[in-house]
Amino acid sequence: MTLVETTPIKSTLPQASASEDDGSRRFVLTLSCIERAGIVQAVTTFLFERGFNIEEHQQFDDGLRQTLHLRTAFSGSPEYSPDALKEEFRAIADRFDMKFGFHDETKQRVLVMVSKFGHCLNDLIFRWRGGSLGGDLVLVVSNHETHRAMAEAAGLPFVHIPVTPDTKADAERRLLELVDEYNIDLVVLARYMQVLSDELSRALEGRAINIHHSFLPGFKGARPYHQAYDRGVKLVGATAHYVTADLDEGPIIEQEVIRVDHSYGPTALSTVGQDAEALALSRAVRWHCEHRVLLNQTSTVVFR
Q: Residues with catalytic annotation?
């Protein structure tokens, strides 16, 4: 393999999905492995032999890490399931030592955590109700009562879990109980202003996304936009990343940057920052829910 960037193959089908046209079922295959000859041929042959039609194919060959990452969307017989495809594909995966997954059109179930700032929650709700989020919001959890009305107005259950130094362990156990109870696929920290323990971060590895301003590590702590104003920043941004035990240092999924100038005071900078946070977070959530994000050691490959 010699490609060095994503290579989309455009479908010749009409704009409507195949499942809408003829009752066929749509799937997505994602995989990562050491770069070797024959991988793409093995994948396409596997799909061809089972009568599937490839609708979208993207791959990235990381020459520095000598790895290949691939996402293929395809459609075909509704008699197949992700589990059945996984079993039939296992021999190929073992041959190339692949990390892989098959996914159908079942939407990811999303739990949103929030504190007192509600702009990201509000944006996620808006996109979810408009059908553009990629996943289904099913629950809002907060350490404050501030946004109960917002959640319940959208028809979402709201669970208040207060957090103090003495109750932090119990609060995190309760969160994991809710993750199991509601069959949660993804936890989104939408400006949730509590640091997760190492244990909780490991329990949610690969299925928790956080958002924060992109000044880090420059302007830590309280009032970052006042610090930014004092230093005369010219760019305001936000970073969405996977949660890890290393605080705010997980693999980055998306970043948004907005240019500002000397006329922006702390309040205006904060407003711009909130816009950037909402945009970066919603994109990260959608791409994750659509199985477009693949981990690549300490970074990610994102097939947009």
A: 248
Residue 139's DSSP bridge partners are 111
Strands (E), the chain: 25-34, 53-62, 67-76, 99-103, 109-114, 136-142, 158-160, 186-189, 208-213, 235-242, 252-259, 293-296, 299-302
Cβ neighbours around 214 below 10 Å, total? 19
**Contacts (Cβ under 8 Å, ≥6 apart) of 257:** 214, 235, 236, 237, 276
| DSSP secondary structure string for all residues of 154-180 | TT--EEE----TTTHHHHHHHHHHHHH
List Cα–Cα distances, 151 to 52, 147, 286, in angstroms. 41, 6, 19
User: Which pLDDT tens digit goes with each residue over 31-71?
Assistant: 999 999 999 999 999 999 999 999 999 999 999 999 999 99
Q: Provide the whole-model pTM.
A: 0.91
Asked if 156 contacts 147 with a C-beta cutoff of 8 angstroms, the reply is: no
> Which residues, in sequence order, are CB contacts of 57 under 8 Å at separation 6+?
7, 8, 9, 70, 71, 72, 73
According to DSSP H, which parts of 135-233 are helical? 148-153, 168-181, 198-203, 224-231
Residue with tokens 């959890």: 141
Q: What is the pLDDT of residue 249?
A: 86
Pairing outcome for strands 186-189 and 208-213: parallel
Q: Tokens at residue 103, please?
A: 């996914």
